[in-house]
Amino acid sequence: MAHSPATTSAASGPLAGIRILDMATVLAAPFSATLCGDMGAEVIKLELPDGSDALRTLAPVDLFWKVTNRGKKGMTLDVRKPEGKALFLKLIMSIDVLVENFRTGTLEKWGLDMATLHNANPKLIVLRLTGFGQTGPYADRPGFARIFEAMSGFAHLTGDAQSGPQHMNYPLGDVVSGLFGAFSIATAIAQRAMDPQQRGTVIDLSATEAMMRLLDPLAAEYEKQGSIRQRAGNRATYTAPSNMYRTADGAFVTVVGSSAAIFKRICHAMQRPELAEDERFCSNPARMKHVDELDGIIAQWCLSQSYSAVATALQSHGVPFSKIYSIADVAADPHYQARQALIRLPDPEHGSLPAPCIVPRMTGYEPAPPRTGPAPGEHNEEILCALGLPRGELQRLHEAGVV
Fold first, then answer.
1. What is the DSSP pairing of strand 73-76 with strand 97-100?
2. Residues 47, 97: one domain?
3. Any catalytic annotation for residue 174?
4. Residues 6+ away with beta carbon under 8 Å from 261
5. What does the pLDDT read at residue 370?
6. Run of H or E including 126
């Protein structure tokens, strides 16, 4: 059988030799498996035979699925049926990591509790990614990205006083918990490598806790100062200047001047060097106290000229800034082009699709771009026949709705 680019690249990756069975749905937990696949793990994407994963129907239909589940082999199996369950447990014997995100108790209801799984494979690592974890009064609640963002306190900080709290137009809560999932898998693999006799690890990952983990100082601020950090639009409430400003030609630019040295550079870029010595702005506490005045000065300067002029002045003085990029700006940026930050994933329908590159880059690991996510059951024959299942039996199981 000819090797696909994904198979070829996996042979040399940091996680080469690790087999992951991703039976999760939609985005968060599958993203964990995809990140591991980027690092060379072999990932099998298990779906129900009807291909009903909701990610396949999210707009833009099919594209979301193809790029999110890149590099995976496709398998269908209904583990709720006796024959499907038996095949699943046989497959599990050769798997290092199982990834699931069903509501708490679902696997147990199907007769696939942790004891059963570890009886089939004592060293199996299981990532259980749910909205609220396997324990606690909310354990059986359903969860989606916006729920995680809301209940972690994250959404409370977005927007401004007039808009109220806001969600961004992307499921941030899913991909953040997916990052924690990939980190958890790598941690468990490292732990197992140090102690080959260790029995399988069960990872209880709460997506809401993952979002909460991003907000380090908020609990301490609340307990010790009695303060609840509030929305402030694009302005930071812990350093100044740090805000977004509009230019004369309608572009938006974000400017950060957290240190005294950087603030001095901003003043020189605006040709207002005296501001650096002004008692209202000579320290970060002073700048925070007079932030409205300071923001007004910078906003007026930006609004008086084009983005090109603003960028030239800030760049020449070494000020951290950026235009607010759309995906069109990302695709056109010469730095991203030079680093091939967007790669092209081979795809049987579209020829190829653009997607973010593998992150991080590691010395000695330069994989070919993985192919896009598989069709339902695309690799059934390869995977199930490797378990000793005759092709005729595979056809029978297909007709019975097991695969």
1. unpaired
2. yes
3. yes
4. none
5. 97
6. strand 125-130
DSSP 45-112: EEE-TT---GGGGSSSTTHHHHHHTTTPEEEE--TTSHHHHHHHHHHHTT-SEEEE-PPTTHHHHTT-
Return the pLDDT at 23.
Answer: 98
Note whether 342 and 288 are same-domain residues: no
Instruction: Give the model confidence (pLDDT) of 83-137 as tens digits.
Output: 999 999 999 999 999 999 999 999 999 999 999 999 999 999 999 999 999 999 9
- CB-based burial of residue 340 (10 Å sphere; 0-12 exposed, 13-18 middle, 19+ buried)? exposed
3-class DSSP assignment, residue 212: helix
In degrees and rounded to multiples of 5, residue 203 shows phi and psi of -100, 115
Q: Which residue stretches of the chain have pLDDT < 50?
A: 1-10
Contact between 254 and 321 under an 8 Å Cβ cutoff? The reply is yes
Tokens of 243: 């805000």
| Catalytic residue from among 78, 96, 174, 295 | 174
Q: How many whole angstroms separate alpha carbon 255 and alpha carbon 308?
A: 14
| Contact (CB, 8 A) for 254 and 298 | no
Respond yes or no on whether the N-terminal peptide bond of residue 360 is cis (omega within 30° of 0): yes
How many domains, in total, are found in the chain?
2
pLDDT attached to residue 11: 58
User: Model pTM greater than 0.90?
Assistant: yes
* Residue spans of alpha helices (H) in 250-306: 260-269, 284-289, 291-303
In this structure, what CATH number is given to the domain that contains residue 278? 3.30.1540.10
Going edge to edge, which strands form the sheet with 242-246?
242-246, 252-256, 321-323
